[in-house]
Amino acid sequence: MPFNLDKFVASPSVEELDSLKKSEIVKVAKHYGVEFQPLMRKDEIKRYVLEYLVDESILPITVLETAITVPTDNTFELKRLEMEMNKEIRLKEMEREMQMQMQKEKEEREMQMQMQTEKEAREHEFRFKQLELGVIKASDPKIGLDTGLFDVSKHVKFVPKFQEDNVEKFFNHFEKLGEQLKWPRDKWSILIQSNFTGKAQEVYSALSIEDSMDYDKVKKAILQAYELVPEAYRQKFRKYRKADTQTYVEFAYQKERHFDRWCASKKVSTFDTLRQLMLVEEFNGV
Fold it and tell me: What is the value of pTM for the model shown?
């Protein structure tokens, strides 16, 4: 039989109230103007309705003695604390899992990069050893064998391909090869410029003859052109924000990458140098 609010109001009773569903008790509470929270349990709302009916002398006070006992505020507080604690534990577990995943992905990337670098270095070193031992004859028009002064034309093919999207990696790779293949440092600028493209080529062309022969000045000018200087790295780290399409793992990786590049550009390699960098950063922000 459907609930009739008017019938209940005309003749309220504990028995009738006990038989109601939560949604029906809510209707009764709203009718009498009894305040309650929507998330309260059925028994709690019923208790408030009974207390109101007793206060208004609609029902005798004895009905409260047999009414179901409502949990005290302490019980609710303990339950709330328990839920918050469980939530915090879950968040920490998720954070720990994410950190482990990030660390794993970072190690895999570093290993792949290291393996690729070592492979390229071995290939170049093997090629150069062939030159030194005369395995590749001097008559070979592609290579030739330097029998006198350093011949740039015979070594330029070993220069790695310039990458505008990863200028730092290009310079690091070039410098490693230069050391491994024992290229004279005063010839580095001539070797490296042969593979410049785009903005790097424009910057190199704008340098004076004297500066264009200085590898360190060439490198500095190129890095500045691509904003690969300490201040640019600092700004990228500070202003980098998560994109809607990024996962938190991807965002954390890019953020970490900007921080590492900032530290590397400032030659931070120890705890003391890192502390100094952070202190200077704080002073600048005051």
Answer: 0.35
